[in-house]
Amino acid sequence: MTAVHPRKVVIVGGVAGGMSAATRLRRLDESARIVVFERGPEVSYANCGLPYFVGGEITDRSALLLQTPASLHRRFRLDVHVRHEVVRIDTVAKTLEVADLDSGARRTESYDTLVLAPGARPRRDE
């Protein structure tokens, strides 16, 4: 008899879209292994609170941070890595090359399903 391994889903991007996908996937599949890579230092901040922060009504930036990698692991069993950037994707081999932005170390990560949710940067007219 062969063992059935849980599906491994890798999500690139750990803010609004990425974390929404990760938590929804957990609700749909309790056995999936869900790994999230976010190149920034935080995940899942309150986007809807940004106007209040910019306008000065919220003065403490940390009030916008709703979750941490540890809290997401406890609540949803998500394996969340901040300050990690996906630098290469091999869709044939179903692997990613991931760089740890703090140590400079690189590693290869495999996946069964890949979700790309890297966000966007504002366009600046000069």
Automatic annotation (TrEMBL):
SUPFAM superfamilies: FAD/NAD(P)-binding domain. Residues 8-124 form the FAD/NAD(P)-binding domain. Gene3D superfamilies: FAD/NAD(P)-binding domain (3.50.50.60). Keywords: FAD, Flavoprotein, Oxidoreductase, Redox-active center. InterPro entries: FAD-bd_OxRdtase (IPR050260), FAD/NAD-bd_sf (IPR036188), FAD/NAD-binding_dom (IPR023753). Pfam families: Pyr_redox_2 (PF07992). It comes from the Bacteria. Its cofactor is FAD. GO terms for molecular function: oxidoreductase activity. This is CoA-disulfide reductase. The lineage of its organism: Bacteria, Bacillati, Actinomycetota, Actinomycetes, Micrococcales.
